[in-house]
Amino acid sequence: MIKLLLPAFVTVLIALIGCAGNPAADEPEQGQQAATLYDKAHELLDAGDYAAAAKRLEDLQAQYPFGPYSEQAQLDIIYAYYKADDTASAVAAAERFIRFNPRHAKVAYAYYMKGVAQQEQGLGFIQSLLRMDRAKRDPEPLRQAFYNFRSLLEAHPESRYGDDARRRMAQLRDLLAQHELQVCQYYIRRGAWVAAINRARSIVLSYAGTPAVAEALHVLLQGYQHIELPALKEDVRRVLRLNYPHHPALAESG
Hints:
The chain is mainly alpha-helical. The protein is built from 11 helices and no strands. The protein has a domain at 191-254. Helices cover 77% and strands 0% of the residues.
């Protein structure tokens, strides 16, 4: 009895294995489903429902992790999160794309959007800093945005995002220098003149060409006056007179 049933059982088993082992038969249907999900996500993007679009794009990547739609979804989700004001998720999505697709034709976009999202995070920090007077904290997102834009320009100097990245880097240098100047004022208010002098010197050395340099020299002028180093004070006065001849500090006595 067993000998008679075995050939039939083997035949059925082979048929089942043949069906399960033919993923190509499912590819057109899966491709259509991925396309439908992608189209719906873009409808939400166009409608300005960025959080819902991000959710749909995440679903697409989870269900169909391979193929052109998933690859494009990885890029689109960076933008969706950014527009949804979820900058932390936008940065994470950009980092994920860069890590897994370092030589992709559109990787420059991921670098660019990562920097833009980090810059937004940093601007939020600066606004809170002005309200809460937390000058001892470091605006790390701004610094990271600057380094990220620099990496973009080094790796993709001819990128279409290059000009805007350079413009943003200039803005970031100004913001970082202004933050350092706020730290100087923080120390001055507490009578910590040596700390204020050290911070002002770092502005002059690290942020040449920014508006904060003139005020940093003024801090140095005041600082050397307070700690009674007249020779250094006169050196700073000469530098200030040479570079900023109309600065009000030059009219101060002493």
